[in-house]
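input
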Amino acid sequence: MKIIVQVAIVVLFKIIFFKNVIITADKLITDELKSTLSMRTLYLEDGYLQEFDATVEWANSDGIILDRTAFYPQSGGQPSDTGFLLKDEQEFDVLRVEAPGLAHIVDRMGLGEGDSVHGIIDWGRRYRLMRSHTACHILSAVIFQETGAKITGNQIDLTRSRIDFSLELFDKTKIAEYVDRANEIINEDHRVGTAVLPKAEALIIPDLVRLAMDLPDREEIRVVDVEGVDAQACGGTHVRSTIEVGGIRLIKSENKGKANRRVYFELVDGD
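output
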């Protein structure tokens, strides 16, 4: 009976995998397993790192965990990186990376614990998302400075991005002016840097947290600083200078209900 049950479980995993029914990372990875793994997040150390070597620490039929990764997981409104992992002559597509646990969801089985792999991210995709993420910070800073509005949500994408914010008065003409001001800042070529600060030190920074929710309960806070413009708590990837954003174009602005506003924009240089 025990053997039958084990076989049934294996078959079930294969059915789920090959039908592309993906189990979310929090179900794949138990709290006990998370505590035994320590992945080095290379994307936070160097957002421009495109290739890396790593070792598989854990694997099952849906995904793997590496000892280090340059793949950014879907988080904070920024989509996951994609790309592939190389093991000898075999190539495995990385469909996405999920948090918590940073499980790399791959297109097929074949990787196991202890395997050495070479990771390559889709750099064109990542760089465009980095530019859009920095643009979100700049536009959010302008809106906040002009109106005091807090950010209630955002979603970065390849074709267009959006920012949601809380604002009583909704003037579409003003929104267009804010986008124009954001483009001026982009063209001023401000340096963009990151720093990990003790929470007490980070909270001294004026207007550090403009999100309409509480700051995560962490001892250290990663701060993204657009020099002379904005400093915000953020775990995402960004360009090194505002000039790299290139420019943004307002697509539309919407009234989403009582004091809830939404702005859509796109990058303008055609990259």
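quick obs: The chain has a mean pLDDT of 84.
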